[in-house]
Structure formats: C-alpha cells, structure tokens
Amino acid sequence: MSKVSFDGVRKVYNEETVALDGIDCTIEDGEFVVLLGPSGAGKSTLLRVLNGLTMPTEGEVTIDGEPVQGEREDVAMVFQMHYLVESMSAFKNALTGGLSREGLGRSLLTLYDREEKMAALDALDTVGLLDEAEQRAGSMSGGQKQRVGIARALVQEPELLLADEPVSSLDPKAARDVMRYMKTASEERGLTTVASLHQVDIARKFGDRFLGVRDGELIFDGTRDELTMDVFDRIYYGEEGASDRSERDSERLAAPTRTSSDSEEATENPETPTQPTSSGGNP
Ligand SMILES: Nc1ncnc2c1ncn2[C@@H]1O[C@H](COP(=O)(O)OP(=O)(O)OP(=O)(O)O)[C@@H](O)[C@H]1O
C-alpha cells in the first residue's frame, strides 16, 4: 500500500498547454480512486506524474513521503491498449511484468525461476485466467487481454496500481468483468489504486472515492454518494453546461434500459448519474 500526495502540482507542456493547474490532494493507503473528467482534462497527465513518466513543471508528487523523480518499481500501470505480445501465451506475457522489477537487462528469452513462474500463475489466477494460461494472447478477447495486462502489472509486485482508461475499448459486460478483477486484485493485495474511467456507472460501482478533473483543476473530490448528477455534469460539461440538463436528460431517458446484469448497481441515490452522453470525450 502507498500513500500518495500531490502538492501544488502544475504541468505545462511546451510552455503553453496547461495540463495540470495546481493539484493538491492526498490519496490514502489502500484507496480505490477513480479519476473522472472530459477528454483533455489532464487525467493521463496526472497518472503520468504519479508513475514518473512526466515530471511536474511546479509542485511535488510524493509516494509514502518520497518525491517521485522517475519510474519506480513499486508503481505499475495498466493502459487502455494492453500492449501484449500477441504471439506469446498469457503466462509468458504475465511473466514479463517481472522484467521491470529485475531491470531491463534481462531478455524475454531468460529462463525464469520457479518463484517468478509461480508469481505469474498467481497473478493469472487473481484475474480469473489460470485455465487460459497457455492460450496465445492474440486469440483472446479484449477483456481477457486486458486481464492479462493487469496480471502482468501484478507480477511487478506494485504497491500502487495505476490504470489509464483500462476499459474504454470494451463492451459493458467485459468492462465490468475487468474492473471487478482489478478491484479484487487491489483488495487482496492491499494496493492503492488510481484508475481513470469514462463510464460513470462502472466508476460508481467500483470506486471508493472520485476525483473530478476539468481544465487541469481538481474540481471534485468525494464519495459515491456525493457524486450526484449535478456534480457529474459539472465535471463533464462545466458550470454552464451543467445548467443545460434538459436536453441531456431526454437523451438519457431515450437510452436503452439496463440489462439484468446491471441491475445489481442499485439506484439507492435518486441523483445517481448513468452514462455520460454527447460531449466530453468518450462519454
Ligand atoms: N506530451 C504532450 N505534449 C503536449 N501536450 C500534451 C501532451 N500530453 C498531453 N498534452 C495536452 O495536455 C492536456 C491534458 O491532456 P491529458 O492527456 O492529460 O488529458 P486526459 O484527460 O487524459 O484526456 P483523454 O481522456 O482524452 O486521454 C491536453 O490539452 C493535451 O493535448
């Protein structure tokens, strides 16, 4: 588990594009945090400054009190595009997660020891793919591939798991499956998790806490119950757009009804947002 702090984090690309504009926030050990925000809001940049792929222009990001100054072994990332080697089995793909732990000097041809193989099998078991361990990645469904991507991240033995739109390209059922396995993995392994998602219904189902980013600013930090339709509209459509609800409400009403598998996500809060509609990136 890791505690993460953003202290006045600002990121400006090419001296003109402000991607993050003074982010202050702390993520506690073991939290499962969902990042929400329209396209270009700064979500990927926020994840990238967390895993050291990008350095802030101002401010500081710390993990367990240590400033992030580059890529870290205890931070693993799951991407929208899983970047698997399609010709290799799920097992071999998962094994490569250990490379970031062991250093890039090791080649894929290296013989892995028993402990590493057990870690890969254990990770595949965590994501429900033990029986498919020998299956070629290229022959797997999109959801299965993403689960292999999660297994590969788990083999790295991270304390902090980051996921950048991990289910954006999946159908709703596969997306839920992937998120369910990611949540289970985080709980079983005590990971702190930060995932950016556009599907608000899925976000609400799995997130413990929600950060809303818009124009590089953190405009919402709250719980599931606090993530009302108004808040959601403010995150995705801005203050002005949030007042223009009637058109979107009619689109929402015209949307297909939920399937029975969706119904477990109770609408205990009548203000519960469903799926974002017209603008704001993927929604
Ligand atoms: N490497 C880069 N160089 C220049 N500008 C960048 C770079 N990466 C991101 N940006 C810009 O920074 C802003 C924030 O981008 P970012 O990718 O963090 O947003 P996002 O919320 O993840 O969007 P999306 O949901 O579309 O992925 C955007 O204006 C984007 O064009």
TrEMBL record:
Task: Give the Basic and acidic residues compositional bias ranges.
Answer: 239-252
Q: Which Pfam families match?
A: ABC_tran (PF00005)
Q: Which InterPro entries match?
A: AAA+_ATPase, ABC_transporter-like_ATP-bd, ABC_transporter-like_CS, ABC_transpr_PhnC, MetN_ABC_transporter-like, P-loop_NTPase
Which ranges does the record mark as transmembrane?
Answer: none
Q: What residue stretches are annotated with the ABC transporter domain?
A: 4-240
GO CC terms of this entry: membrane
SUPFAM superfamilies (alphabetical): P-loop containing nucleoside triphosphate hydrolases (SSF52540)
According to the lineage, what is the superkingdom? Archaea
User: Which key words tag this protein in UniProt?
Assistant: ATP-binding, Cell membrane, Membrane, Nucleotide-binding, Translocase, Transport
Where do the record's region annotations for Disordered lie?
Answer: 239-283
Q: Where is the composition biased (Polar residues)?
A: 269-283
Please verify whether the record's keywords include Signal: no
Under Gene Ontology molecular function, one entry of this record is: ABC-type phosphonate transporter activity
Against PANTHER family, the record matches this protein to: AMINO ACID IMPORT ATP-BINDING PROTEIN, PHOSPHONATES IMPORT ATP-BINDING PROTEIN PHNC
The protein, known as: ATP-binding cassette domain-containing protein
